[in-house]
Each structure stands twice: as C-alpha cells, then as structure tokens.
Amino acid sequence: MDVGKEEALMEAVIVIVLAIVVLVSILSPFFSKQFEHDETADKVEDGQEKEQIFSHLADLEYDFEMGKLSEQDYVQTKAELTAKAKPFIRPSDTKQEKIEKKVDHEIESYLNKNGLLVNKGGTSNG
What we know:
single chain, mainly alpha, 76% helix, 0% strand, disordered C terminus
C-alpha cells in the first residue's frame, strides 16, 4: 500500500471514531434523563401527597383547637390521617407513639410556618 493511502485511511478512521464519540456524548443525556425524570416525578408526587396529608392534619388540629370539631371526630380523623402519614415517616420510627409525636411535630411546624398556631390562651402567634 502507498503511504498516502495509509495516511488517508488512518485519517478516515480517526474522523469516524471522533464522530462516534461526539454523537454518543451528545445523545447520552437524552437516554439517562428519561430514567431520572421518572424517579423525580415519583418523588414530587410523594412530596405533594405528604404535604397534603400534613396540611390536613394541621387543619384538623386548628379546627379542633377552635372548637369546630367534636373530640370524637378529631380523634377518629387524626387516626385516619396518621395512618396515611405512616409511609412518610422513617422506618426506624415505626412504634405508634413515635409516629404520633412526629406527626404532632410536623403539624406544629406547619402551623408555626403559616402563622396559625394557637396558644393555650386562644390567641394566635402571628
């Protein structure tokens, strides 16, 4: 083979290899983004559900403190919402008392954050 033909062949191989590397580099994010998007969507849905449950618990607590609910309704609804909140609590806190304390803390935090916490005297902190 002629030296010129070998150089031309070598240049063609290098150009093809570089083109493949560039193509793979450009297209790889599109394939990995789909997987990341699915995980992110699940996390967002879980986060929204968690926020909704704790918001309902906070509203329940507030309504009970304001005298809008009977104790029986309060206890029953809180038990239902606490059961729904259970998957969002870390697995190490599976005992009922720990879960209820965590839920109560989340409710208090939510009420504080939104200026809805009612003091024992009946006035709000906000």
